[in-house]
Write a structure and sequence with these properties.
The complex is a heterodimer of chains A (904) and B (153). A 6-stranded mixed β-sheet of chain A has the order 10-15-16-7-17-18, sandwiched between helices. A 4-stranded antiparallel β-sheet of chain A has the order 6-5-8-9, with helices on one face. Chain A has 904 residues and is an alpha/beta fold. The radius of gyration of chain A is 41 Å and the shape is extended. Chain A has 33 helices and 18 strands. Chain B is α+β, with helices and mostly antiparallel strands and 153 residues long. Chain B has a single domain, classed as Jelly Rolls. Chain B is 42% helix and 31% strand. Chain B is built from 5 helices and 6 strands; from the N terminus they run ααβββββαβαα. In chain B, α4 crosses α5. Classes of the chains: A alpha/beta (904), B alpha+beta (153). The interface between A and B is medium-sized, with 27 and 26 residues.
Chain lengths: 904, 153
């Protein structure tokens, strides 16, 4: 990787840099004109130079051939111009000025935009290149680096470079030319002054790098400390459990504080140095003026120099400081950015990365593995240079099921990791189908070899995307950047230079997040069978039950769910379920729901109709008032408050009984007490607005089954039912779609699949009712044929950051599903399913081994490093390992004695 | 569905709570949980650890004692009967199994709530002590009676 920033910029944006320079040069005459014209306007038309007589005219837009006087000895006039009188001239010049201003502005706009775009695109390239390298880090290195530090480098550290890219070449060339012109001009005016100026500039060029040395060192330190800071913050966030468990928070504070302090110290010194250098620069340049005045003045007074020459020299000098200062600033930027760049890419460039060919995509489908692995005198060393595998030779065919058996220090799991290339071998050779494993492209190993260990990390996303990302993709792939950056011609000015898509899933129906029917693809069928085998089907099905179907759900699914609802309801008459669920019935008041829920009798879509907003909802209140219910509900509210005070009024505020009973909070109780005192005897009409709202809110959230104050009698129930009907009529007319009503005959998109089937509340008074109901529903789904669909919906379940929404059991099973879904030729199970209880684990592994040999012929090789002693008969061959060596191998019968000895 | 007042009325019929102030009984009722069992469903089994006392709100419950391999019904309790209160007051395993005899509705009184109540209202404690003492006297006289019989027999 290129370590010199300027070279890097030049390599990747040569043409653009030249273009910027050309545009800058072209814009200069316009700029000059913009400065020149005001002088012409004042001198000419305003002061009247050249317009001495009233009728005098001057020519405008005269164009002479440049350098014609030098070349031909006379002015060659190309265009004699237009004759204007004084007023016409004023107007013409002013408009010319306006034109020059606009044109100059446009040039500035163009140049700045162009530079910005160039910077961003080059930055994009650099970031891509760095990430490309991370993807090709050797596995050991990738495990060692701190994620937050890498992120910090790619995201933040190189960010300021973007500002510099556009100015990298045009700025110094342009400023240099300006300075050189100034200097030459000065020399022409007065050689002595020229020499003095040159001397001062050379002195600057010598002293400033000296002063800067410390500055650059500080820049380096600043970057390193900042990177360490982000690494450390990342560590603390990742290990937050430990921070709390071991009360390390203050230690963390101290640690981070020290780092922040250090950064301030560095930055402060950096500022000091920076401004010191600036001060010196400015000072030296102004010293020149001092010398000019003093020396020049002295010479003029003593008559050794004439005044005109001094004035001309000073005039020539005045154009010098700005470009010199610009060059010095640019150089400082260059050095700081060079360091920033060096620091950022250092670690990336020093790491020996995998050859790009190993990850290259290809349009030809990969060939299946024919023979399998062979390894020859392989030795693997651990981080402490101790051998974990010693001089192991052998072969594992793709047509056999092999168990590699050994205890924790036997090297069995290292052997499995080594075959999966998660471990780099120290010496010896491993081959796959005769080809050196090092050279096997990842797309082959990735598609034809499945691997699962006890790791439970998932990057996030839904279960479906988690699965889909491991499946083979069709052609098309982003570039892999070669060591010398050739072959990867992403030109800077294409809009989307990288074909960023790595193709599409071969089985396209699988990856889509859809609510429609279960995809009919091959992958889906295969997934179902695997999910059943590893016993994950039911878990996903449950996730599916708890999800809501979108509005766009397929009618067939809705019908299937409605079918399930009907059969569940009719099944309720069976002895098993009796009374476990209270069904929603629009013609019945439900004791399990609050008064508010009973009124609305549906799921609010518009938040104005949510339970907590209901009491203050004007249209609901108006309707209740009309029915005369508002005052009755107010009375119920008062009654609830009274009951609560009676029950809990005597309890101490911190009473655990109060907290545990699910009664109101002390604050709420206090609120009720105050409201009651204020209300004393008042009716709904005469009460305060606020108190009335409090009481109504109490009434709306009152649930008879929960609180049992016996406040909703039959008469009240029928009134509420009437109100429910008129509310529904009103809502359908005026707020269509605000509430998804509970209708036994139609699917409710605002409810989860489970609630849609259940269409009621599970009786909380029955122990274990929920489990029984769930089980019954699952059976029902199975018989009504929508089970797979609900399972499919469940695949949209979010696995969470790092897979944390999954239990360890589920995550480990999902790892196996991923390993199997791609239909590998060989699957490696390396102490997989460690979180499962032994019996279940052995059952699943047995299933997997058997799955590879259907119809009596083995089509998928299995390499298993088991956790349990037993189930040997499943395997064709057993490798016994001890202390990094294979000590025995053969059929299960052959090594049975040693196996038993080992088990003891 | 029973209301709190129904439950209070029921609690008052239980000797243990007979003389406890009605407002406190209401609190007991409020903190209790209703449970429903179908015929033959087990409420708890002998030897298990439990910390709740139960009051039969509706229905009947069989008290079963393990005898060898099978269980023998030693008693059948009806509405308003309280059981399991021994485990509720002190840490002893259930001395018998209880099973629903027909549909059964129970009021579960949790130990921590009972204890809290006693802690908060000493009056309740006095009533409970009085009742337990009365029971002890009863049991003692029963025992004396049995011993008498044994001696004379």
């Amino acid at each position: 990787m290129q370590r010199n920033l300027l070279k890097y910029i030049w390599t990747h944006s040569r043409n653009q840099q030249i273009w910027i320079f050309v545009v800058v040069v072209v814009s200069m005459p316009v700029y000059f004109q913009m400065l020149q014209l005001p002088k012409l306007i004042v001198n000419g038309p305003i002061q009247g130079d050249g317009f001495d007589s009233p009728g005098a005219t001057q020519s405008f837009l005269t164009i002479d051939l440049p350098f014609s006087e030098t070349l031909f000895g006379r002015t060659v006039n190309l265009f004699s111009g237009v004759q204007f009188d004084r007023q016409q001239m004023l107007i013409a010049l002013c408009f010319s000025f306006l034109f020059a201003v606009a044109l100059n502005g446009w040039f500035k706009l163009y140049i700045n935009t162009y530079k910005g775009k160039l910077g961003e695109k080059l930055l994009r390239r650099l970031r891509y290149e760095l990430f490309d390298r991370v993807l090709r880090y050797p596995i050991a290195k990738a495990r060692r680096v701190k994620p937050a530090e890498i992120t910090s480098v790619i995201k933040d550290e190189i960010e300021p470079l973007g500002q510099f890219f556009g100015d990298a070449f045009s700025s110094p060339v342009f400023l240099g030319a300006q300075a050189l012109t100034g200097l030459t001009f000065l020399f022409l005016q007065n050689t002595m002054f020229g020499i003095i100026t040159l001397a001062i500039v050379l002195f600057q060029a010598w002293i400033i790098p000296l002063l800067r040395r410390r500055l650059l060192e500080l820049g380096r330190q600043r970057q390193q400390t900042a990177r360490k800071l982000s690494g450390r913050i990342g560590e603390y966030v990742q290990g937050m459990d430990d921070v709390h468990l071991h009360a390390m928070s203050n230690r963390a504070r101290e640690n981070i504080w020290q780092m922040l302090r250090r950064i301030v110290v560095i930055r402060f010194e950096l500022y000091q140095r920076k401004f010191q250098v600036k001060f010196l620069n400015n000072f030296l340049i102004q010293v020149l003026a001092f010398i000019f005045y003093l020396l020049g003045g002295y010479l003029v007074i003593t008559g050794r120099m004439d005044l005109g020459a001094l004035v001309a020299s000073i005039a020539a000098y005045k154009d010098l400081p700005a470009p010199i200062k610009g060059i010095i600033d640019w150089d400082q930027q260059r050095l700081l950015n060079q360091i920033r760049y060096e620091q950022a890419v250092e670690d990336f460039a020093n790491t020996h990365i995998m050859p790009g060919a190993r990850q290259e995509a290809s349009e030809t489908p990969v060939e299946p593995i024919k023979d399998g692995f062979s390894f020859d005198h392989v030795t693997v060393l651990d981080a402490a240079e101790q051998p974990v595998i010693q001089d192991v030779s052998g072969a594992i065919s793709r047509n056999e099921a092999v168990a590699i058996v050994g205890n924790a220090d036997s090297g069995a799991e290292h052997l499995a990791e080594m075959l999966a290339r998660l471990l780099v071998i120290g010496s010896g050779r491993i081959a796959l189908d005769g080809q050196d494993l090092e050279r096997v492209p990842e797309r082959l190993s990735g598609q034809r070899i499945g691997y699962a260990d006890s790791n439970i990390f998932f990057a996030g996303g839904s279960i479906r995307t988690t699965l889909a990302e491991t499946l083979p993709y069709t052609e098309g792939s982003p570039p892999i950047i070669d060591e010398d950056s050739k072959n990867t011609e992403f030109r800077v000015y294409e809009n989307e230079p990288i074909p960023a898509k790595a193709g599409v899933l071969e089985d396209e129906s699988f990856g889509r997040e859809i609510n429609a029917e279960w995809p009919q693809g091959d992958t889906s069928e295969h997934l179902l069978s695997i999910m059943h085998r590893v016993d994950l089907y039911d878990d996903v099905l449950e996730y599916g039950l708890l999800r809501r179907l979108g509005d766009d759900a397929d009618d067939d699914i809705k019908n299937g769910i409605m079918e399930a609802r009907r059969s569940f309801a009719s099944d309720q008459s069976g002895a098993q379920m009796k009374g476990a669920v209270e069904f929603f019935d629009p013609a019945k008041y439900s004791q399990e729901l609050t008064i508010g829920e009973n009124l609305i009798f549906g799921t609010p879509v518009d938040q104005a109709f949510s339970p907590e907003n209901l009491p203050s909802n004007n249209s609901v209140r108006g309707l209740l008032d009309q029915a005369g219910l508002l005052s009755e509900l107010f009375d119920i509210g008062v009654e609830i408050a009274r009951n609560n005070i009676e029950l809990f009024g005597d309890l101490a505020e911190d009473s655990t009984l109060l907290q545990r009973s699910g009664g109101p909070s002390p604050e709420r109780l206090q609120e009720m007490r105050i409201a009651l005192e204020k209300l004393d005897g008042k009716t709904s009409k005469s009460a305060d607005e606020a108190d009335r709202d409090t009481m109504l809110a109490l009434a709306f959230e009152y649930c008879e089954a929960q609180t049992r104050f016996g406040l909703v009698d039959d008469a009240m129930q029928s009134k509420l039912l009437t109100a429910r009907d008129s509310l529904r009529t009103m809502l359908e007319k005026e707020h269509s779609g605000a509430v998804a009503f509970l209708d036994p005959e139609s699917f409710n998109p605002a409810l989860s699949v489970l609630d849609n089937i259940l269409f009621g509340r599970i009786d909380a008074r029955r122990i274990g009712a929920r489990e029984r109901v769930l089980k019954a529903i699952k059976t029902l789904l199975e018989t009504s044929g929508v089970s797979d669909t609900v399972f499919h919906i469940g695949l949209s379940y979010d696995v969470g950051n790092g897979g944390r929404n999954l239990s360890t059991n589920q995550a480990q099973k999902l790892k196996i599903v991923r390993a199997l879904l791609k239909k590998p030729d060989i699957v490696i199970l390396n102490r997989a399913l460690s979180a499962l209880e032994s019996g279940e684990r052995m059952k699943i592994i047995h299933e997997v081994v058997r799955m590879g040999a259907e119809n009596g012929q083995r089509h998928m090789g299995v390499i298993c490093v088991p956790l349990d002693n037993g189930g040997w008969k499943d395997f064709d061959r057993i490798l016994l390992m001890e202390h990094g060596r294979i000590v025995s191998e053969g059929s299960p019968e052959k090594v049975s004695e040693r196996l038993e000895a080992m088990a003891k | 569905m029973s209301t709190l007042n129904d439950d209070v009325a029921m609690l008052r019929k239980v000797p243990l709570f007979e003389s406890v102030d009605p407002s406190k009984l209401k609190l007991i009722a409020y903190t209790s949980t209703q449970l429903v069992f179908d015929d033959g469903e087990e409420v708890f089994s002998q030897g298990s650890n439990g910390t709740s006392a139960y009051l039969i709100a509706n229905g009947e419950a069989d008290i079963l004692s393990d005898s060898g391999d099978k269980q023998v019904v030693v008693a059948t309790l009806g509405t308003n009967a309280l059981f399991g209160e021994i485990s509720a007051f002190c840490d002893v395993p259930r001395t018998a199994s209880v099973r629903a005899h027909g549909p059964l509705t129970l009021l579960e009184l949790k130990r921590e709530n009972l204890m809290e109540l006693i802690g908060e209202f000493p009056d309740v404690a006095v009533e409970v002590i009085r009742e337990l003492a009365r029971r002890l006297a009863h049991t003692t006289s029963d025992l004396a009676h049995v011993l008498d019989k044994q001696n004379s027999g």
